[in-house]
Amino acid sequence: MLSAQSDVQVDTPEVRVTEWRLAPGSATGRHVHEMDYVIVPVTAGEMTIVAPSGERSKAQLAVGKSYFRKAGVEHDVLNETSSEIVFLEVELKP
Amino acid sequence: MLSAQSDVQVDTPEVRVTEWRLAPGSATGRHVHEMDYVIVPVTAGEMTIVAPSGERSKAQLAVGKSYFRKAGVEHDVLNETSSEIVFLEVELKP
């Protein structure tokens, strides 16, 4: 599977901001969020979330509509649509 | 002068995310940033920044290109263009 592309925009003692670009058919790979984080969608889109159990769910992204998650989340994130998905991940350093 | 519109999207013990919408001719009003913050532009645009001294400068926003600032910044932010400017402010709670 194609790998999502990431670009670190900000990396300070307080925060790290990473831009993620998921081409159609790509995935981030399974990962654990080590820090609390905010997602800011840059594009609209539908992500496929795969839990460690293998359970699949869909998550809708709307441009500029952010959401917060606590550290500890583990998942893979896939783009099974025909459009690129772009979002920023803002990780809050402890 | 018109007032910028704000909408709090996330407010947890860790972080607050506020969407700011600056119509043409509007301003946030002079304010002090009490927390470190990240700005995520949702639109492109040019902001006019007015320092407490009255000095004016321009800041270019590019969609999805974030930047970080430490607490303590004091300024007014104006939209002197003919297009709406939208960005998210992600404030890091101490």
TrEMBL record, chains A, B:
Family matches, as Gene3D superfamilies: Jelly Rolls
InterPro entries on file = Cupin_2 (IPR013096), RmlC-like_jellyroll (IPR014710), RmlC_Cupin_sf (IPR011051)
The residue ranges of the Cupin type-2 domain are 19-90
Q: Entry's CDD domains?
A: cupin_BauB-like
Name of a matching Pfam family:
Cupin_2
Designated name of the protein: Cupin domain-containing protein
Name its species: Bradyrhizobium aeschynomenes
State the taxonomy lineage.
Bacteria, Pseudomonadati, Pseudomonadota, Alphaproteobacteria, Hyphomicrobiales
